Amino acid sequence: MGTPIWLWLLFLGLVGVLLAFDLGVLNRKEHEIGVAESLKLSAFYITLGVLFGGFVWYQMGSQAAAEYMTAFVVEKTLAMDNVFVIALIFATLSIPRRYQHRVLFWGILGVILLRGLMIGLGATLVAEYGWILYIFAGFLILTGIKMLFVGDKEHDMADNPILKFLRRRMPLTDELHGHSFIVKQPDPKTGRIRRFATPLLLALVMIEIADVIFAVDSVPAVFAITTNPYIVYTSNIFAILGLRALFFALAAIIHRFEYLKQALAVLLIFIGSKVFLADLMGMEKFPPAISLGITFAILGAGVAYSLWRTKGQDAKELTGK
Questions:
Q1: Which of 215, 223, 225 has the alpha carbon at shortest distance from 66?
Q2: pLDDT digits (tens, 9 = 90+) for 225-241
Q3: FRET pair for 268, CA 20 to 30 Å: which of 30, 38, 152, 168?
Q4: Per DSSP, what are the bridge partners of residue 185?
């Protein structure tokens, strides 16, 4: 795929070490992750993701590094919408905070595999059929316009058809059994001992399905930034690793980023449009450094406007005024 195998092995080894350190050291004992711990972990992963961008610069050049950082920032922002859905899943299934990290940890393993398959498929299609990149770009523009002018429907997880289907099809316990995903207990109908899924496993499956749905937007977005599978994959995984850590702090203040979705819509339109603009301007590729600057400007404006418009909101909710 144009990238030395040792770079792939180095990255996968780093991810393996991080996950082992997370589960075996930081969270060896299950506990409720507070805001302070969440922010520290998130800062660690964001720093690591940025440092990896420096490594990409050293190994692959400034253009590749700019593409990586743009993809990293875009993926991190796109994944923020996933936080809201994950919070809804946990709330609907009554998953206590002390078990949520366990679900998210095993969820990231599934994400690593699923994103790898989707990115591998995308890279193959782009390599074999170059014109498919224009389909990705057009899809992003249409998605951005829909988000900007139509908006998203409110999520009602209790009435989600996928959740209803899984509840009908999966042998499921009514209550949690500690941190277990699967337990053995007598079947109410036959009396025989059989395996039952717990709500923890149902939450894990729902989170994996949600990630696949979100990847339909995020994977084309990154391919519109770069067609290098190594940059696409590493930026995806680093963004998701950090978001998992940030979830416990972000879920409580996600309402403060009320207007970030509009900024995200503009960003998707820009990312899709620059594929066509590069052709119209006779360029092989839209300048990565300019693309990174515009990305930061759009998202920075969205965050600043959101924080300004929602300032004092928490105080109003507490006082009822």
A1: 225
A2: 888 999 999 998 888 88
A3: 38
A4: 194
